[in-house]
Write the structure tokens for this entry.
Amino acid sequence: MDPQIGDVLLTADEIAARVRQLGRTLARAYRGREPVLVAIMNGCVLFLADLVRRWPGPLDLEFISAASYDGTRPGRVRLALPAGFASRVAGRAVLVIDDIYDTGSTLATVCRQLRTLGPTEVRTLVMFRKRRRAPAARRPALARRRRARGGPDWVGFDIPDRFVVGYGLDYRGRYRNLPYLALLRQAP
Ligand code: 5GP
Ligand code: MG
């Protein structure tokens, strides 16, 4: 194993079991409809590929990218949408899928822009959500801000507020292909 990789937080088997459950839950939630899954690249590619194979039923896939101007500071997110994207989400039930939810600003930006394109609804799914390590006094404010940002509707796992890699998540482009979720020995 790579010496940079620290504790494994979630094994491949634990992840697979949860993805199976999510597939069943979402198939039920969207029964009788044909949603458009809008995946935020690149982080959610492993999760998406596993999820849709556990989700029987019709759906469409779209891919967008969201880049922070500054990876360390929340709130500044730039989106890149493919040609013709707007016409493929208008009048549709949209499910936005991201790898990890931290401050919520990526998902909030994506949802805000999507709503201008006239979907019938916009819901959100993330594989991992960080339990923020806010001081006790600020916790209610943080929880309120996350709620106001409107998401996520479904979560795979709540995880500690640490920098994680694997299962799609990278550090400087590496480790996305690890089948498990792990800490880096030296957090960036
Ligand atoms: P948010 O906008 O919710 O603060 O941050 C979400 C984005 O930040 C994710 O889509 C992901 O790209 C990045 N991110 C947040 N936490 C981590 C982490 O622990 N590891 C990695 N590799 N990326 C993270
Ligand atoms: Mg991301």
